[in-house]
Structure prediction request, 73 residues.
Amino acid sequence: MTKLLDITRDHCPMTFVKVKLELSKLASGDILEVVLTGKEPLTNVPRSAAEEGHEIISISDESERHRIKIRKK
Prediction:
């Protein structure tokens, strides 16, 4: 299952808080696709997710927005 989470209106540290809450609702192996903006969330969200043991599948740049795909551990 893939779930989409748009955090483009949020700022750190709330960006990873929302990602963490959404990941907690998913089953192991499910994918969370996160849409975000800004340099700080682009650095912090994948780093924090990886530190918790989740797999960063991809990070893509769509001009002003970025997409990060995370597979739940």
Notes: The chain has one domain: 2-71. The mean pLDDT is 95. Residues 23 and 32 are 7 Å apart (CA to CA).
